[in-house]
Description:
- The complex is a heterodimer.
- Chain A is of the alpha+beta class.
- Chain A folds into two domains: about 25-125 and about 130-245, PmbA/TldD superfamily (PmbA/TldD fold); about 250-480, no CATH class.
- Chain A has helices at about 30-40, 95-105, 140-155, 220-225, 230-245, 265-270, 275-280, 340-345, 380-385, 435-440; strands spanning about 45-60, 65-85, 85-90, 125, 160-180, 185-205, 205-215, 250-255, 300-305, 325-330, 335, 355, 365, 370-375, 390-400, 405-420, 420-425, 430-435, 445, 450-460, 460-470, 475-480.
- The longest helix of chain A has 17 residues, at about 140-155.
- The chains are: A alpha+beta, B alpha+beta.
Amino acid sequence: xxxxxxxxxxxxxxxxxxxxxxxxxxxxxxxxxxxxxxxxxxxxxxxxxxxxxxxxxxxxxxxxxxxxxxxxxxxxxxxxxxxxxxxxxxxxxxxxxxxxxxxxxxxxxxxxxxxxxxxxxxxxxxxxxxxxxxxxxxxxxxxxxxxxxxxxxxxxxxxxxxxxxxxxxxxxxxxxxxxxxxxxxxxxxxxxxxxxxxxxxxxxxxxxxxxxxxxxxxxxxxxxxxxxxxxxxxxxxxxxxxxxxxxxxxxxxxxxxxxxxxxxxxxxxxxxxxxxxxxxxxxxxxxxxxxxxxxxxxxxxxxxxxxxxxxxxxxxxxxxxxxxxxxxxxxxxxxxxxxxxxxxxxxxxxxxxxxxxxxxxxxxxxxxxxxxxxxxxxxxxxxxxxxxxxxxxxxxxxxxxxxxxxxxxxxxxxxxxxxxxxxxxxxxxxxxxxxxxxxxxxxxxxxxxxxxxxxxxxxxxxxxxxxxxxxxxxxxxxxxxxxxx
Amino acid sequence: xxxxxxxxxxxxxxxxxxxxxxxxxxxxxxxxxxxxxxxxxxxxxxxxxxxxxxxxxxxxxxxxxxxxxxxxxxxxxxxxxxxxxxxxxxxxxxxxxxxxxxxxxxxxxxxxxxxxxxxxxxxxxxxxxxxxxxxxxxxxxxxxxxxxxxxxxxxxxxxxxxxxxxxxxxxxxxxxxxxxxxxxxxxxxxxxxxxxxxxxxxxxxxxxxxxxxxxxxxxxxxxxxxxxxxxxxxxxxxxxxxxxxxxxxxxxxxxxxxxxxxxxxxxxxxxxxxxxxxxxxxxxxxxxxxxxxxxxxxxxxxxxxxxxxxxxxxxxxxxxxxxxxxxxxxxxxxxxxxxxxxxxxxxxxxxxxxxxxxxxxxxxxxxxxxxxxxxxxxxxxxxxxxxxxxxxxxxxxxxxxxxxxxxxxxxxxxxxxxxxxxxxxxxxxxxxxxxxxxxxxxxxxxxxxxx
Lengths: 485, 451
């Protein structure tokens, strides 16, 4: 049963898809209708306007000084025209009707067979309000800065060996609107807040780093549940621990991943490979595998954009579809892929709410939201006790995958040796390497201690916020790339 | 470009008593075409512009207080609001005597011509045709199963920078690229390879070379298996060396050094690498992908020697990190467009070329592993501690030539040890996209981890 740990809410925000109303519209419906008609004047199967107004603020404390308080504003719209398998796209920072019409004309350059006049009529407006309890824009800059100094103090008090601390705060509010020639008119108001602490510890054997981050699709209330001191101590503790670390082993070893240490394993091992854009191009090891056993029967993998507060949460995706809970792998059997508008249309089905883009300057594509492995029923301590020798990964860093071959890496940022069923010495950072389908089959135990972790997912040059999660689990063998023979 | 400088000067002219103001204004045009299966999959074109404003309050006595704001628009009311927001942000910063804006330092800007009118003059139809031609070339190769994507892209970027401290700088550049990713293999086996070509304009792009590279890189991995763990010599492909130098560069940033986040800190004058290693950052070399006459604070870029014959000679500084280190800027401020603030970093790193070509290096090495590509360069390489561990694809080297392919293995060491263990530096310098050139590089005593 997921939902244990970190107080995850499991209420789907799309339940109120039809109700809430935001502030004034970014673009009036009659303007949208005229722009969509203009976009289809040369022909085309579908036209779309995606408009966005994003405000960000960030602050950085480094070397005990507030170095940078920064504010940003980005507003604009992209017009997409789809004709057959071809997409035209143009964007503009000018949200006036003239600016939008110019973008529509540029986007429609791909359609040349002549379509004549099409009247576009938008359906009822579906607008989701922000779920933030405290909008960061309503919090004083001093209150944000106070968090930075508190974290800096806490990190420095963790040990004399902490020689450098940097603390970052950031918030963003993204109001967006999607309108299509198919009548969709949907809006969302997404508020996100993040806080991160990065420490350097210096010892006889050199320097080590520790990092911890809190990132939620919430407003300033995020600092009610988790204190910045806890985040700072976690980062500092990680750097201090690694001062005593020995080189990681090399070769194939059993690996135990701590609960919440990084569902990034699944994000890389199979998440990307289950994105339908890779599937329709036969560029994924999971193409043609629906209904097949692709993982250990202990693996039930879900991608769920509706998990309130998680970093990859939203009400409406960037193509106007409500976020959804999609089961990708159930008891080891591949059940479905993740879909955006274009790939779903090709298969004659609906998008799964996974069409996302970094900003109005980008085309949408299939992206993950919050991707996690459902918890099992083992006691996490028992998993370690029953592992005579191996590596215990308390925290993962990033990762990377080649979806076509399934080979992927993921880096450790806090790891230990397991000897005689006990966690012993800390290890220096290393990458682990494996093949997605092989690693998924080698999961032989999953525990109950489910937890999520935020991350930034990069694909094709676009970054979006995502969540990952899993409980403590064991992989019977995976190759670790340390320097110890 | 003159209109951008006028706007920057106009913003700077609104500085109030007791403050310095700097405005960075940028405008870009870009086009991207993706071909798939003989059709245009997508065609995206766009223009964008924006401004980043820094305000430094200098009336406090105990040091300057810096604030920043940016906006993706050059509309008058937006620019005014951005200036006001930067000014407000500054009131919250910690006063710091080292925080100042750059002042002209007398170094003349290199006369670089990085603007090729070919980008604007080439019709979109021709650019689309290039993507389709590249896709067709690779897809119709008998061993290719699928072309994942074949892209053409280009950009034109213009930047103007002005400040109350006397900075006036403008620069502009164009760039274009093609890239293709091939998928090969039969049955359960799949291998991939990417080829690309970059130039200042479409006329300089080599479709045949990009296609052939994707095919070579994918097909030579067919039959790859996991190799046995070993301590061995590793020969890195020029593309990998370019990204490896990029990682090492973060430890050569003066900012990382003064803040104690570099394994090079405190080692000036020491032997940090094999005696054959000379590492230079020279953004005034027009062949460099990120070449530019002016740095992110408007100072002239210049050639900086970082490591000379194995000895650490210097770091790269922007104005603030230089003051903290008690030195002067090396013209190395970099900034991530109008939404970013300047920091110290490199733009055009290159190792002094050796005399051997790749095949000669392989012959000298005899036995080892050739690394064609790496994964996890960011999750497994730590420029603070120096720990280095990456996943690789490549080929074994046996009897001085490339032999059977390998996959799902890692190579590991530390950056410190790798620099000391450089065995051969290739003469095959290639200017690649990114912040460093590439060339073949052989490094001894690395741990290969596999079965």
